[in-house]
Write a structure and sequence with these properties.
Elements: E1 15-19, H1 36-40, H2 42-50, E2 54-58, H3 75-85, E3 90-91, H4 98-105, E4 112-114, H5 122-126, H6 129-136, E5 141-144, H7 155-159, E6 166-168, H8 170-184, E7 190-194, H9 203-209, E8 215-218, H10 222-229, H11 244-256, E9 260-262, E10 266-270, E11 279-283, E12 291-295, H12 297-309, E13 312-316, H13 329-339, E14 344-347, H14 351-358, E15 367-368, H15 372-379, H16 385-388
Length: 393
């Protein structure tokens, strides 16, 4: 995938409109709980500013559904970005219109403007071309650095690229590089560790990767869907009932292709989902009234052993309910094993990235993707609209 990159553009004296993914998590008081996605965009931002460009940043935040929602304004993002850059970031109260155009016309080289939440306009998610043109007329060049939104055919993602000379940002290129490596030339043994809730979310990537994989290690709630598909009693564990047939298909296909398929051999069980809940370790069938909340110690040892043997590892989905500290041991052990493995480690976005960040191991991974859904669609072999819209070299 050989796209025109930010490094190919002469940005000096130019106004650059850059789509970023600043869809950061906020607490009840509107404070940012993780600035990972903001920090991920800093290389592209600094590249443009250091070379004499002025920068207009645009992003969505949350799901305002085409309405102005006070709690989802970009103001806290602007404040945090300014702190990280050590320079002022001017936040505008809209993303298109006369006020925005006036602010842009006042910009000097090296200035940064942050537009208001794009999704306050229903035209953004509708991929409306007039909205895309209103954004495009603010600038001379377009850069897409929002991998987390690249699987959406939205106006700011796919639309603007039709109206301005465009390029892939440094983060987008990094995402393409490491995810392509998994599809094209992963060094063997190549294993995937898959957790999270739904088998149906992972079927496409699993099927697409099966020809490359040596092993699949399963945890999280999806493990109980697979165990139920094999006829094992899973007690009160969370099961995706409509995913059971899918699970049977994956088990059959993995066996046919000679891919080692590992399910938890023991579990941490709890009666309730709370830190003080009564817990026990169990092997085999899970009794009624108990639910699996993490992989057990034997499984941790087995999975860590497989990680130590691997040369390429993809991890998507925590293997337990890591947000509750007593149920985080499996995910923590997996993260620590990846960090010390010496393998090429690619971690999917979303909850997995949040877990790795919570364990303080972000810098120990080869690549931590900023896009959960986008990474899975890429690994499924789908063409992502945000990437397809950018010109080839």
């Amino acid at each position: 995938m050989n796209k025109v990159s930010l490094g190919d553009l002469d940005v000096a004296g130019k106004r650059v409109l850059m789509r970023v993914d600043f869809n950061v998590p906020l607490d009840d008081e509107g404070k940012i709980t993780s600035d990972l996605r903001i920090r991920a965009a800093l290389p592209s931002i600094n590249h443009i500013l250091e070379r004499g460009g002025s920068l207009i940043l645009m992003s969505h935040l949350g799901r305002p559904n085409g309405q102005v929602v006070e709690e989802l304004k970009m103001d806290p993002v602007g404040v945090r970005l300014s702190e990280l850059l050590g320079r002022p970031v001017r936040k505008i109260q809209d993303s298109i219109g006369p006020q925005v155009e006036a602010a842009v016309n006042e910009m000097q080289d090296g200035d940064i403007i942050l537009l208001e939440n794009l999704r306050f306009h229903p035209e953004e998610e509708a991929g409306d071309d007039d909205f895309a043109q209103s954004l495009a007329k603010l600038a001379d060049l377009y850069v897409n650095d929002a991998f987390g939104a690249a699987h959406r055919a939205h106006a700011s993602v796919a639309g603007v690229a039709r109206h301005l000379p465009g390029a892939a940002g440094l983060l987008l290129l990094k995402e393409i590089k490491f995810l392509s490596l998994l599809l094209e030339e992963p060094q063997a043994p190549f294993i995937a560790i898959l957790g999270g809730a739904k088998v149906s979310d992972k079927i496409g990537p699993i099927e697409n990767l099966l020809n490359k994989l040596s092993g699949l290690l399963i945890g999280g709630a999806m493990a109980y869907t697979f165990l139920k598909a094999k006829g094992t009693s899973v007690g009160s564990s969370k099961v995706e009932e409509e995913g059971i047939d899918t699970a049977k298909t994956i088990l059959t296909n993995a066996e046919e292709k000679g891919v080692e398929f590992l399910l938890p051999e023991d579990h941490l069980l709890a009666r309730k989902l709370e830190p003080s809940a009564e817990t026990m370790i169990a092997e085999g069938a899970i009794p009624e009234g108990w639910r699996g909340v993490d992989i057990g110690p034997k499984t941790i040892d087995t999975y860590v052993g497989k990680i130590q043997e691997a040369k390429t590892i993809f991890w998507n989905g925590p293997v337990g309910i890591f947000e509750i500290e007593p149920f985080a041991q499996g995910s923590k052990a997996i993260a620590q094993a990846l960090a010390s493995s010496g393998a090429t480690t690619v971690v999917g976005g979303g909850d997995t990235a949040t877990a790795v960040e919570a364990f303080g191991l972000v810098d120990e991974m080869t690549h931590l993707s900023t896009g959960g859904g986008a990474a899975l669609e890429f690994l499924e072999g789908k063409e992502l609209p945000g990437i397809a819209a950018l010109p080839d070299k």
